[in-house]
Write a structure and sequence with these properties.
The complex is a heterodimer of chains A (238) and B (468). Chain A is of the alpha/beta class and 238 residues long. Chain A contains 9 helices and 10 strands. Chain B has one domain. Classes of the chains: A alpha/beta (238), B mainly alpha (468).
Chain lengths: 238, 468
């Protein structure tokens, strides 16, 4: 579903992304870990077509994101760190609009069903989203992805700033999507959440993918140690 | 996508208290302006109808009198108030409403409304054209300045792009959401004005086609303005900067450039002062025939030519009263002089106009202003046309009086008086203003410039927002 081959993005002498190769298949959740500036967001932005790669290829559902950026967007949904919606509109209206932009014509009961599926309380459906917490907004974001029937989900630090309960609910939603066969690429700092939801975890540093494990290969402790070792944090602590 | 964005933007705008308040204020101002203008129009129109009837009655009932005395007694040509002046008063307040028609002299229009006003007139009047030309563009700025920047600032643009949004379609949806409410307000204003005018007694030559042409002119102006504001909003990142730049464009387009155009035009093609103009005419008059002076060189020459033409030895042998004949020849000579000097004024006016037209290329306000005034028949062209019609009527009146005097009396018989009924034979002054088609033809440059602005700004907006 997501295939990245030797993807490179440079800004002058600085390599924001250096020959990245990875693959996320149907029903997989790939978590990209790494410090700020490691290249996680650059990877997502390249997949979204917001920036052009210097070299290499990326495919969504086997469609080249550089050559056919509009077409690839039909197959993906994106939830940024801070999902911003239209504050004067309700959740239903926001969902209706974003679905409309993706050429999905949905009736009100269908929109409500997606919001229910995303875990939003029904009493909040017709309230202006200006009063929503970040967790509630992220749920609307999931509803937008569900309504779009996206096969690929790109998440950029989606749980950052969420309280543990909301973060846990979000994780459960990702599992639901996984069961539906959605391929998810999630950039995150949250090692524990990554261990909980991911099928594969990759660690990025200086634009390169340094390590990659199947989540079943390691315990949380081993994952933490390996991550810190990769990032050279252990040497700094000692 | 366009429909969805239109619906979303309309909801957002409607729920935004600032926009609601602004709309209500503009609507109130518009209603007040229409009421004020309708009352003003009604009063002026009543005065016109009354004055025209009174003046004609005075003319018709002047009793037995020598025709040349009647010529000096004179009459008035009144400029009709046109229905669409209710929307755009144009230069009417500064050009005067009536011209005194008398022998030997072409007078300028008198009773300039602006001269009767106090110093407060300097602040301008609350008229529909003020709202249409200045206030509604401000409202458009208020609605549109953050239309695209807010998407960037909030981060919703990123989500839109990830959903596969097409830039120009999003912008077109926003464009329609900004344009339609304003178009509806202006439409209601125009329709209610149309019905108001149609139901006024003696409402003159009102035509719905002129009203709709004016409506289309203003809609084009607003479309250009929306394009400019959206272009700014698409090109900058911050709403504050977009607002400042949009207001700067408004100041430049609506306030600065028209004044610059006026100053350049005045500087490059100045009108003669009133004193110079009068002196030049007096100088030329002295060189030619004066109908009242039989002893001048020109009069003697005419006398000799006339005697020769009719093969007689003395003026009393002529088959008409030579005094009346000389008066008419004098009138014709003076009319030529006035024609020459007014033509010079018109040339200057035309030159000034060409400056305006050049500067209209940098300000859509100018062609809109010219078209609006022309359609309302309150522009300088219509005033010149009226002034020329009044002058032609004056010349015809003098000919009518002099011919009667020459044909009905004998040479030297200055005591002769025309019948009391004679005056009624003079046709009434009736002024037909340029038709809408003629107005459009004479304003093709303004129309062309507006279309260039419209399509140019649309094209630029399309390419700027193709990928947001």
């Amino acid at each position: 579903m997501i295939r990245i081959e030797n993807l490179t993005k440079t800004y002058g002498d600085l390599a924001a992304l250096d020959t990245l190769n990875l693959e996320v298949n149907k029903g997989e959740i790939y978590c990209l870990l790494g410090a700020n500036g490691a290249g996680k967001t650059t990877t997502i932005n390249l997949l979204l077509g917001f920036i052009k790669p210097t070299s290499g290829n990326a495919f969504i559902n086997e469609i080249d994101v550089v050559k056919k950026p509009k077409l690839t967007k039909n197959h993906l949904a994106y939830i940024p760190e801070n999902l911003m919606l239209y504050p004067s509109l309700t959740a239903i209206e926001n969902l209706d609009y974003f679905s409309g932009i993706a050429n999905k014509k949905l009736k009100k009961h269908e929109l409500e069903a997606f919001l229910v599926e995303a875990g939003l309380q029904e009493s909040a459906f017709n309230k202006s989203v200006a009063k929503y917490s970040k967790g509630m907004r992220q749920k609307v974001g999931i509803a937008i992805a569900l309504a779009k029937d996206a096969k690929v989900l790109l998440l950029d630090e989606p749980t950052s700033g969420l309280d543990p309960k909301a973060s846990n609910e979000f994780g459960q939603l990702l599992q639901k999507l996984r069961q539906k066969g959605v391929a998810t690429l999630m950039a995150t700092h949250d090692l524990f959440r990554a261990k909980e939801v991911a099928t594969t975890i990759g660690v990025m540093k200086d634009g390169q993918l340094k390590q990659q494990w199947s989540v079943d290969e390691l315990s949380l402790k081993e994952l933490e140690d390996s991550y810190l070792e990769t990032m050279n944090y252990n040497s700094l602590q000692s | 996508m366009i429909r969805h964005t239109f619906t979303k933007e309309t909801k957002e705008l409607w729920r935004d208290g600032r926009v609601r308040i602004a709309f209500i204020i503009v609507l109130l101002l518009t209603v007040i302006a229409v009421i004020i203008s309708a009352n003003y129009y009604k009063n002026v129109n009543e005065q016109y109808v009354e004055a025209s009837a009174n003046e004609r009655e005075v003319w018709d009932n002047q009793g037995e009198k020598n025709p040349h005395s009647a010529a000096h007694y004179g009459t008035y040509a009144f400029k009709p108030k046109y229905p669409l002046s209710l929307i755009d008063q144009g230069v009417d307040k500064y050009t005067g409403t009536s011209i005194f028609l008398e022998a030997h002299k072409r007078n300028e229009a008198q009773f300039i409304a602006a001269s009767d006003q106090t110093g407060l007139a300097r602040f301008g009047d609350l008229t529909p054209d003020f709202i249409l030309l200045f206030i509604i563009p401000l409202l458009l700025i208020l609605i549109a300045y953050n239309s695209i920047t807010k998407e960037k600032e909030r981060g919703t643009l990123t989500l839109l792009n990830s959903q596969g949004a097409v830039g120009w379609k999003i912008v077109l949806g926003k464009w329609l959401a900004i344009f339609l409410p304003v178009a509806i307000i202006v439409f209601v204003l125009f329709v209610s004005t149309g019905f108001l005018l149609s139901n006024l007694p003696d409402f003159g030559v009102f035509s719905w086609s002129s009203l709709w042409t004016m409506f289309i002119t203003y809609m084009t102006y607003y479309a250009i303005f929306i394009n400019l504001v959206l272009l700014i909003s698409a090109s900058v990142k911050k709403s504050g900067i977009s607002l400042v730049l949009s207001l700067s464009v408004w100041i430049l387009v609506c306030l600065v450039l028209p004044k610059v155009a006026s100053n350049i035009a005045e500087y490059k093609y100045p009108y003669p002062t009133r004193q110079e103009f009068a002196e030049n005419i007096a100088k030329d008059k002295k060189l030619g025939l004066d109908g009242h002076n039989p002893w001048s060189k020109a009069a003697k020459k005419l006398e000799q030519e006339t005697l020769k033409k009719y093969g007689v030895d003395s003026l009393s042998q002529l088959p008409f009263n030579y005094d009346g004949y000389r008066m008419q020849k004098g009138e014709e000579h003076e009319a030529e002089i006035y024609f020459k000097h007014y033509k010079l004024l018109k040339t200057q006016y035309s030159n000034q106009n060409s400056i305006y037209k050049i500067l209209a290329a940098v300000s859509p306000y100018l062609p809109t202003r010219f078209l609006s005034m022309a359609i309302a028949k309150t522009d300088y062209n219509t005033h010149w046309d009226f002034s020329d019609a009044a002058e032609n009527y004056r010349i015809d009146t003098q000919k009518f009086l002099n011919t009667h005097f020459a044909e009905e009396t004998k040479y030297g018989d200055w005591s002769w008086k025309a019948d009391a009924d004679f005056w009624k034979q003079l046709p009434k002054f009736q002024y037909e203003p340029p038709s809408l088609i003629e107005t459009i033809k004479t304003n093709m440059t303004s129309i062309f410039i507006m279309l260039v602005w419209l399509f140019g700004s649309f094209t630029l907006l399309f390419f700027t927002t193709k990928s947001l």
